[in-house]
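Re-run with default settings, no changes from the original entry. Doing this only to confirm the output is reproducible before filing.
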Amino acid sequence: MSDGFRQEVRTWLEENLTGEFAGARGLGGPGREHEGHELRMAWERHLGAARWTCLGWPKEYGGRDAPLDQQVIFHEEYARADAPARVGHIGEGLIGPTILRFGTEEQKRGFLPRIRSGEELWCQGYSEPDAGSDLAGVRTRATLEGGEWVVTGQKVWTSLAHLAGWCFVLARTEPGSLRHRGLSYLLVPMDQPGVEVRPIVQMTGTSEFNEVFFDGARTDAANILGAPGEGWRVAMATLGFERGASTLGQQIGFRRELEAVIETAQRTGASEDPVLRDRLVRSWLELEIMRFNALRTMTSLSAGEPGPEVSIAKLYWSEWHRRLGELAQAVQGREGLVASGGPYELNDLQRLYLFSRADTIYAGSSEIQRDIIAERTLGLPKDR
C-alpha cells in the first residue's frame, strides 16, 4: 500500500513540475522566501486543486484522511522532487490543525477551505520584543468592544507577515493577568488600517521576518479559538503541530545541503584536511541519528502518545543545521568570504551559513529548549 502511494506521489510530481511549473523547482526556503512568490502561489493553488494539500485533514473538510505514514511519504517525495518550498505551510501545518481541534463548526467552514485550496496565507503572531522565547510574557492586549476584539501591541519575527491575509495572535484579554493566565488566541485579518508590517532585513539581505504593529486592529468577536483566557492551551497545541510529518521531508533538504558541502570540500581540497574531514563525517552521522529519531517520533505519534524524543527534535536539528552552516563556510576557504556578485549576491553555502544562525533562536531558542527538556521531560528542579 505504501509503495503504491509513494509511486503515485512521485509520478504526479514528475508530471506536474513541468511546463509553467518547471521553473519552480528549488525555489524558496529559509533565506530565500522572496523567490518566485507568484509562481509558488500558483503552484500552491495547483496542489490544492489536485487535493495534495492537507492530506491528513478529515475528508469533510477537504482532506484525504491520510494516515501518518502517507503524510510522511508525501513530504519525502516532495523534497526529493526538489519541488518549491510551500508558501502555505503555516496555514496547513499550524493554524489549520488548530482550527480542526479547537474551532467551532462555523470557523471550520469559514477558514479551512481557503487554506486547503492554497488561496489564503497565514502568519503567526506569538513573539514580541520582550517576550520571545519567554512567550508567557506577551503584552499585546485585546479588549471586547461592540462585538469586536480591538488589538493593540507589537509582534516581531513574524514570518511572511508581509504576504499573509490573516494572523493568529496570542493576546492578553484579562487586564492585570500574568504569565500563562488571561491570554486568548485571536484570528485577525491583516488587511486593515490598524495593522502595520515592517520587514526586518536579515544578514542574507532578504526580509522573511517582520515586525507587526497592531494599533486598534479589529476582528469579529467570534474569531477566537477556545474560550477567552484559554489562549495558552491553544497556543501550545499549535506548537505541537509545528513538529509533525513534514520533519522527514525537511531532513531530505538537509541531506541535499550536506551533499553540496561535501562536493565543495572535494573541489576546494578541504576534504584533505583531517579536522574538516572529521567534521564532515560527524555531520553525516548526526543526520542519520536525526532521521532515526524522527522515525521513532512518528511511531509514538501514530500511537497517540508522543514520547520524550519530541522534546529534543527542535534542539537537535537546529544545532546540527547551525554547525552545518559553519562547516559550509569553512570548506569554501577564501571564496566563502567574498560575495558572489554585487552588491550582495550570495551563493547557496554562504546563505546557508548566515541564515542558519537564526535556527537556534526562532521557534524556541536552544536555551529555552534545554530548560524544557530538563524540567518537563527529565523532571529536574527549576532554575532559581
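The radius of gyration is 21 Å. The CA atoms of residues 187 and 289 lie 38 Å apart.
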